[in-house]
Amino acid sequence: MPVVEASVVVPVPPALAFAVSQTTAPVRYRWDPFIREQHFADGATRPGKGVRTFTRSRHGIVMVSEYVSYNPPSNVGMKMVRGPWFFEVFAGGWRFGPAAEPGHATAVWRYSFRCRPAWLRPVAERIGVWLLGRDIRRRIQGYARGCADPVVLDAARETLGHD
């Protein structure tokens, strides 16, 4: 199964780095260039294991995903429940930990996927690695900008201690 990954060091501690990654609309739209619309599904109001989210990407692609893990401040994982026809499987995980420089965090984001139909998979997955690789790099760069944005940081700080 193909995997794309990106990492960045941000000038905030791991707990705050994690909190930034879990900000919701409208604050999320300040830093996340991938998302055009996102909200919790099924009446949920906060992230957590088993919670589903609806996401519309900047490409217009819609996906419903479910948190398979939610472990502040270290990691979060999701899997696609419903999505575009060309993904048979899509999953992602974001990890956060201390960086070498005190007060900084390292964020590592990873997506894995499998395309369909099977006969098209060899070509589709090469294209997917290129497209998703480009998107994950843009997204983590936006996240890094969010970790320096006072509005995003204030919103993220409000959520600390609520998990």
Notes on the protein architecture:
This protein has helices at 14-21, 28-31, 121-146, 150-159, and strands at residues 3-10, 35-40, 52-57, 62-71, 75-82, 87-98, 105-115. The mean pLDDT is 96. Strands 1-7-6-5-4-3-2 form a seven-stranded antiparallel β-sheet. The chain has 163 residues and is an alpha+beta fold. It has one domain (3-159): 2-Layer Sandwich (Alpha-D-Glucose-1,6-Bisphosphate, Chain A, domain 4), CATH 3.30.530.20.
CATH architectural group: 2-Layer Sandwich
Mean pLDDT: 96
Q: How far apart, in Å, are the first and last alpha carbons?
A: 32 Å
Order of helix and strand elements from N to C terminus: EHHEEEEEEHH
Helix and strand composition category: alpha+beta
Question: Layout of SSEs?
Answer:
Blueprint: E1 3-10, H1 14-21, H2 28-31, E2 35-40, E3 52-57, E4 62-71, E5 75-82, E6 87-98, E7 105-115, H3 121-146, H4 150-159
Summarize this, please?
With 163 residues, the protein is of the alpha+beta class. It contains 4 helices and 7 strands; from the N terminus they run E-H-H-E-E-E-E-E-E-H-H.
List keywords for this structure.
single chain; 163 residues; seven-stranded antiparallel beta sheet; alpha+beta; Alpha-D-Glucose-1,6-Bisphosphate, Chain A, domain 4; 4 helices
